[in-house]
Amino acid sequence: MKLQQKFRTAEQFNLPDTTIIIASYPARNDRSIKEIDAVASYTDHFARSFKKEMGKQNRKVIVLAQKTGKDEWYTEGDMLICRVWDKGSPLCFAQILTALAFFPQVTSLLVQFEFHQFGGKVTTALFPAWLTILKIMRKTVSLVLHQVVEDIGTLSGHLNVTPDSIQTRIYNTALHLFYRTVASVTPTIIVHNHVFAKRFEQMTGRTDAIVIPHGLGAIKPKYSKSQARKTLGYTKSDYVILTFGFLTWYKGSDWITDAVAGTKRKHMQLLLAGGVSPNIKNSPYYRTFVGNIKQQASNHSNIKLTGFVEDADIPRMFAAADLVVLPYRSLMSSSGPLAMTLAFKKPFLMSHALSPYTKDADFTRALHESGLTANDITFRLRKADFWKRVTTVQNHPKRFKKLSAHLGTQRVWPLVANRFVQTIKNAGLEPSGKFAILQGSTATYAHT
Questions:
Q1: How far apart are the first and last CA of the chain?
Q2: Residues sharing a CB contact under 8 Å with residue 312, sequence separation 6 or more, in sequence order
Q3: CA-CA-CA-CA dihedral for 332, 333, 338, 339, to nearest 10
Q4: Is 244 helix (H, G, I), strand (E, B) or coil?
Q5: For residue 394, how many other CB atoms are within 10 A of its CB?
Q6: Domain boundary assignment for the chain
Q7: Three-state SS at 226
Q8: CA 436 from centroid of its chain's CA atoms
Q9: Cα(186)–Cα(184) distance, rounded to whole angstroms?
Q10: CA distance linking residue 71 with residue 53, whole number of Å
Q11: What is the rounded distance in angstroms from the CA atom of residue 37 to the CA atom of residue 87?
Q12: Counting beta carbons within 10 angstroms of the beta carbon of residue 405, is it exposed (0 to 12), middle (13 to 18) or buried (19 or more)?
């Protein structure tokens, strides 16, 4: 787009009540995130509800997204998409600052952050400096941290590092410095669960991180169970365990593959619905990791590896499943697969590493209302413990479905988006040191 056209387009959105989202985002025509990252899918689903909630207050939304071939500006409905930064380039933050110059009246920024979203180590190191510049520019930044990691050693197999090594200690020191710097220059921090808020507090001393759950429900059911199973080659007698998302070590993709490959239980099937992670796909150790999963899947007829699943095909995978399993080795990111599971009201089990999720207020209530405990839905990464929990779900599926249904009603995108709108409004209007702490559907205030 020519410079003059940009100024004309910007004029319609350059208003004090506008909020700019800075995040990765799916391409204009191809909505696949296969070659982007998970945040792009999150932003896509979130923005649909967020712009509606903003529209109710006559406020506009802009997304400053990564380029997908070229610099282009266009509208999606009443939302402006500006593709202005190059992922992986050390100049990406300068490109974003240049784009912000077109919108001088806009002070409210909603920044999504996940490691690798803007690039690798260099861009991550530059991120706090960029936030500092935004503060100097008097921008009101609300930062969504999709990951809060205290110890790189817990991700050893994912990052190909050795726990307790000198390298890991150096990374951990840098990581803690990163969070402390971010905390010092960003007034409003948002996370998706209380365990991340607690980690952030332990590393930075900040007790005011705002907890807003990961939203769900943007993708609607389209298949009956029988239809979905027929297309995937399953029979009525099959018991289908689904794992969903990019194949990674920290998500335990290899663990669940090995567990199901070694079982002698009749009709037990694993639907491994996911492809390679775009963030680490070129790493030799990761290619070996994925290769081993593919080999094991090819050697066992009860394991189906789908490859990357586009949004249009997600309902089919969940409709076919009897149980969704999240066999994570480490709690690194807010779980998109868990949000999908709740949206489709599916029974689920998750590894002990994800047990801190059950401490969230709405999760605790949903467990109580379903007649379940945290112990009922979590397992240690030991095969005997895992299969014991699976048997419990098989014998009492209604309780586990009820849990998903109860929890899901509290986390639908319209409710989540409304909380974001209120948080952003408070960030711009409340005095320094006063923050909205959203727990469930109730907003209270705390003074630091």
A1: 46
A2: none
A3: 170
A4: strand
A5: 14
A6: 3-215+414-447, 225-409
A7: helix
A8: 22
A9: 6
A10: 28
A11: 11
A12: middle
Angle at the Cα of 46 from the Cα atoms of 210 and 405, rounded to 5 degrees: 80
Q: Say whether 225-409 and 3-215+414-447 share the same fold.
A: yes
pTM of the model: 0.88
Tokens of 25: 């985002």
86-123 in b/e burial notation, b at 16+ Cβ within 10 A? ebebeebbebbeebbebbeebbbbbbbbbbbbbbeeeb
Q: For each of the chain's 448 residues, which pLDDT tens digit applies?
A: 788 888 888 999 999 999 999 999 999 888 888 888 889 999 999 999 999 999 999 999 999 999 988 889 999 989 999 999 999 999 999 999 999 999 999 999 999 999 889 988 899 999 999 999 999 999 999 999 999 988 777 777 787 788 888 888 998 899 999 999 999 999 999 999 999 999 999 999 999 999 999 998 888 888 899 999 999 999 999 999 999 999 999 999 999 999 999 898 989 999 999 999 988 888 899 999 999 999 999 999 999 999 999 988 999 999 999 999 999 999 888 778 899 999 999 999 999 999 999 988 899 999 999 999 999 999 999 999 999 999 999 999 999 999 999 999 989 999 999 999 999 998 865 444 433 333 333 333 232 2
Residue that the structure tokens 């009101």 belong to: 140
**Could you say which architecture CATH assigns to the domain 225-409?**
3-Layer(aba) Sandwich (3.40)
What's the CATH number for 3-215+414-447? Answer: 3.40.50.2000
Tokens of 426: 């408070």
- Judging by DSSP bridges, how do beta strands 239-244 and 210-211 pair with one another? unpaired
Distance, CA of 254 to CA of 107 (rounded, Å): 45
Cα–Cα distance, 281 to 274 (Å, whole number): 13
**If you count them, how many residues does the chain have?**
448
Q: Which long-range contacts (CB under 8 A, 24 or more apart) does 100-103 make?
A: 100/20, 100/64, 100/137, 100/139, 102/6, 102/7, 102/10, 102/14, 103/10, 103/13, 103/14, 103/18, 103/20, 103/62
pLDDT tens digits along 67-78 = 988 889 999 989
Tokens read off for 137: 């520019």
